[in-house]
Specification:
single chain, Rossmann fold, alpha/beta, Alpha-Beta Plaits, 290 residues
Length: 290
C-alpha cells in the first residue's frame, strides 16, 4: 500500500504519526514529502546513504540567432520569458520547465540547460528506509521534487508511507495523488475541524478511502467526532494529550520508541486501512462493471 499521512493544518502531529507508523512495521519506506521543511529525519536519525540533486531544464537564449519575434513570450503561460527590443529575459522562479518556448522558437535560438532546485537524500535506520526531499532555499515550487520522490518509490516492494506537507495546496495534492489511502491526522479543536473538512474534500476529489487519527484527544470539544460520524469517516486511533508523549517528542523519540504498546496499535491501524482500501477497490471495480 501507499499511504499518505496528511492534515489540513500544521501542528497536528502528522510527522509523529508517520514516523511511528513506519517504525511499527516490519517492511516500510518512509517518504518525507514536506520538502520545504522536512523534519522526519529528526525523529528517525538515519544513516545517510545517498544524496542526489534534483534539476529542472531552464531556457537559454542565443541572442545571435534570436530575431525577437516574441513567439516564446506569447506561448509562455507563466510570464517566465520576456522579449525586449534587443534582449530576452528569462525568470527561473516563474519557469515551469514545460519546454514550450524552445519548441515554438522559429529560429531555434532557445536551448535548455539544467539548474538545481533541490535534492533527495536516502537514509537507513534499523531496516527502515527514509527518503527525504529538500527544496533549495529561494526556490518557489515544491511539486517537482515531490514528483521525483514518488518516482523513487514506485517500484519498491514495501508499505510506502508518505508524510505530506500541511494544508491543501498543490504539494499536498501531488503527494496524495495515486496513493491507496489518505490517513488524516486531526485534533479536536475548532481549527482542527475546519482544516480537516478541507483535507477530506481534497481526498474525496481524488477518490481515496479516508481514515482519521485524532491526536491530543481530550482537549477541545466533540465537534470533530460529530463530523466524523456524520461523514461516515472511521476514527482508527485516538492519541491522548499526554505529558509522556510530549516529553518523548521533545527528545526526538517517536511513539513506537517511547511507548512500545503503540507498535501493536499502529499495526492494527494498518490492518484497518488495508481492509478499507480493498473494499474501496472492490466497489470501484463493481461500479465500473455495472
Amino acid at each position: 500500500m501507499k499511504i499518505a499521512v496528511a492534515s489540513g493544518k500544521g501542528g497536528t502531529g502528522k510527522t509523529l504519526i508517520a514516523t511511528s507508523l513506519a517504525l511499527s512495521l516490519e517492511k516500510a519506506v518512509l517518504v518525507d514529502c514536506d520538502v520545504e521543511e522536512p523534519n522526519a529525519h529528526l525523529l528517525i536519525s538515519p544513516q545517510w546513504q545517498l544524496n542526489q540533486k534534483v534539476e529542472l531544464p531552464f531556457p537559454k537564449v542565443d541572442l545571435a540567432k534570436c530575431n525577437f519575434c516574441q513567439e516564446c513570450q506569447r506561448v509562455c503561460r507563466f510570464g517566465a520569458i520576456v522579449v525586449l527590443a534587443d534582449q530576452v529575459l528569462a525568470f527561473p522562479e516563474l519557469c515551469h520547465s514545460c519546454g514550450a518556448c524552445s519548441l515554438i522558437c522559429p529560429s531555434k535560438a532557445i536551448s535548455e540547460e539544467k539548474r538545481k532546485i533541490g535534492e533527495i537524500r536516502i537514509g537507513i535506520k534499523n531496516g527502515l528506509e527514509l527518503i527525504e526531499g529538500r527544496l533549495q532555499i529561494g526556490e518557489p515550487m515544491a511539486t517537482p521534487i515531490i514528483r521525483e520522490l514518488k518516482r523513487w518509490v514506485d517500484k519498491k516492494d514495501s508499505t510506502i508511507i508518505l508524510d505530506a506537507p500541511p494544508g491543501t495546496s498543490c504539494p499536498v495534492i501531488h503527494t496524495l495523488r495515486a496513493t491507496d489511502y489518505a490517513l488524516l491526522v486531526t485534533e479536536p479543536t475548532p481549527f482542527g475541524l475546519n482544516d480537516l473538512i478541507l483535507a477530506v474534500g481534497v481526498a474525496r476529489k481524488l477518490a481515496l478511502p479516508i481514515g482519521l487519527i485524532v491526536n491530543k484527544a481530550g482537549i477541545g470539544d466533540k465537534k470533530v467526532y460529530a463530523y466524523a460520524q456524520e461523514q461516515n469517516l472511521p476514527i482508527l486511533l485516538e492519541i491522548p494529550e499526554d505529558r509522556a508523549i510530549a516529553e518523548a517528542y521533545s527528545k526526538g523519540k517517536t511513539l513506537a520508541e517511547a511507548l512500545p504498546e503503540y507498535k501493536e496499535r499502529f499495526q492494527m491501524v494498518l490492518d484497518k486501512m488495508y481492509l478499507q482500501a480493498r473494499e474501496n477497490v472492490r466497489k470501484a471495480v463493481g461500479g465500473s462493471k455495472r
